[in-house]
């Protein structure tokens, strides 16, 4: 089923109401310091924050703790840190089930905005953020509820974690379906692999959309190009009127203005950052069929010049019959230019 242009044009609105749900787990905790500017008074420190995240061509500082396990940030939110033999790391927050960091060879590839709230008061603005069971506005809250509920740790090793989200009184109030979502993250030697596994535990079918609203680091937008099968493809440009269908003529995308574009049928983006001489391949091997590119160009408060959203999306709704399942596989592979 293809969606109308009007529905596409409204699907990626940036605001919405949230009712955060934060719970605790029984796992042991550690603590680590997080650096992030959260208000106007901290604007002067954003360059230092960006450097600590690996933006601007600066590698993550050596000597940071790389121990794996369940930890707690300064705001009280729990996250899992994965680490491999090479010293690469990945952080995954239980709140929202969101991957907020992927460091390879000292270089951070996943972005968290400087205005992000890391205390559970709203969904984390950054990382590989879940949009489920809805993408954009619709019958329930903006982008669904998966990104503002606490997921449960089902299993954990030094290099893997499996999180689970099941129905709760909170989710049933807005979407009373018998679902079970499992999100797995594996820090492999050469890539970071993720799997979103959705099961219909009931007898009645339900429809859903799925996306990873992925934020990636950029040394500067002038240094960025995004390759993939874009040339000749139609896309919805949301920045023109109520949304206008256009045809992409470029082989590689560059960003010099505010971007909000929906590329249906494109799922093979490769980010190239000449400022650090690195690439990041987004490998969508199952489920995710479309790509959204978003950047709030000129918005200093969001740190626009040091990130780009290249989102893995299943936009046309999936109809999942009772007892059936759906899988979304996405992996990130860093490389040199």
Give structural attributes.
337 residues; mainly beta; nine-stranded antiparallel sheet; seven-stranded antiparallel sheet; 3 helices; 6% helix; globular; disordered N terminus
Walk me through what this model shows.
The protein is mainly beta and 337 residues long. Helices cover 6% and strands 39% of the residues. The strands form three sheets. A nine-stranded antiparallel β-sheet has the order 7-8-9-10-21-18-17-12-15, with no helix packed on it. The radius of gyration is 19 Å and the shape is globular.
Sequence-ordered SSE layout with sheet pairings:
Layout: H1 5-10, H2 46-52, E1 69-72, E2 78-83, E3 89-93, E4 98-104, E5 107-108, E6 128-131, E7 152-156, E8 160-165, H3 169-174, E9 179-187, E10 192-200, E11 206-217, E12 224-227, E13 234-237, E14 244-247, E15 252-253, E16 259-263, E17 270-273, E18 278-286, E19 290-295, E20 307-320, E21 325-336
Antiparallel strand pairs: 1-2, 2-3, 3-4, 4-5, 6-11, 7-8, 8-9, 9-10, 10-21, 11-20, 12-15, 12-17, 13-14, 13-16, 16-19, 17-18, 18-21, 19-20
